[in-house]
Amino acid sequence: MRLLSGLFYAAVAVHAKTVVQNWEITYVTTNRGLNMDAKRGVGVNGKFPLPVVEAELGDTLVLNVRNSLDTPTSLHSHGIFQKSTNYYDGVHMVTECGIAPGSNFTYEIPLEQSGTYWIHGHTSEQNYGGLQTPLIIYDPNDPYPADCEYLFAFEDWSPKTAEEIYPLLTEPNPPFRLFDYPPNALINGLNANLTGPIAFEAGKTYRIRLVSMSSFPLFEFTIDDHELQIIEVDGVLTKP
């Protein structure tokens, strides 16, 4: 068993690479293509949606971050255990002090898990403002191979900013109710009503990756007349 384990890790190491992302975290004023007024959000490199981060098991993810906001920021890789690297966990004032405005920081994270995860801001509810994106870590020896796969990342985009919503959480008699200004749905960063059809071929196996990046648990996923098998939850393989 030790020999086999050693051979496995050696094989992973041979194919391992460094995946580099250069992110300038900025304010972006947008309505995300929705029928609503624009508001100030938090994006990367001046735009939405954020780039999907893709890597393989055994790679090292390097996030070079420039904070161009007027407040601290930090990034949390949701679901990643951060064994021996908890200083890269991104929880503001818990595992790090945050990235000060106008400064740079590099996260260098060994990817020792495969599966479907996401990266999001972990300071001042910046994920609520759009600072979030899927993190997909592929396993070269995936026990559930598929002929094709689809990714659906779900977001809610509220007409109000986090600062405007905050009184709902702190005041006994808030000035308005949450669903006086209901959030809109985004899929893969775009207006959910504009999502195109999914094409399936008979006899093929499809993996569908679902990432709920919403601030409110508003989403359910079904496909009419199809039976879905759950094979992974939060990076943990399950038995269908």
Task: Walk me through this protein's architecture.
With 240 residues, this protein is mainly β. It contains three helices and 14 strands. The protein has helices spanning 2-15, 162-165, 167-170; strands spanning 18-30, 39-44, 53-56, 60-67, 75-78, 104-110, 115-121, 132-138, 148-157, 184-187, 190-191, 206-212, 232-233, 236-237. It has a four-stranded mixed sheet, with no helix packed on it. Strand 10 (184-187) and strand 11 (190-191) form a beta hairpin. The longest helix has 14 residues, at 2-15. The two termini are 26 Å apart.
Please describe the biggest sheet, giving its number of strands, its sense, and whether it closes into a barrel.
4 strands, mixed
Mean pLDDT: 88
Alpha-carbon distance between the two ends: 26 Å
- Percentage of residues assigned to helices: under 10%
SS elements, strand count: 14
The SSE order reads HEEEEEEEEEHHEEEEE
Number of helices: 3
Strand order in space, largest sheet? 2-1-4-6
The percent range for strand residues is 25-35%
Backbone CA Rg: 19 Å
Low-confidence stretches: 1-11
Based on helices, strands and strand pairing, what is the structural class? mainly beta
Q: Tags for this entry?
A:
240 residues; mainly beta; 4-stranded mixed beta sheet; 3 helices; 14 strands; 35% strand; globular; disordered N terminus
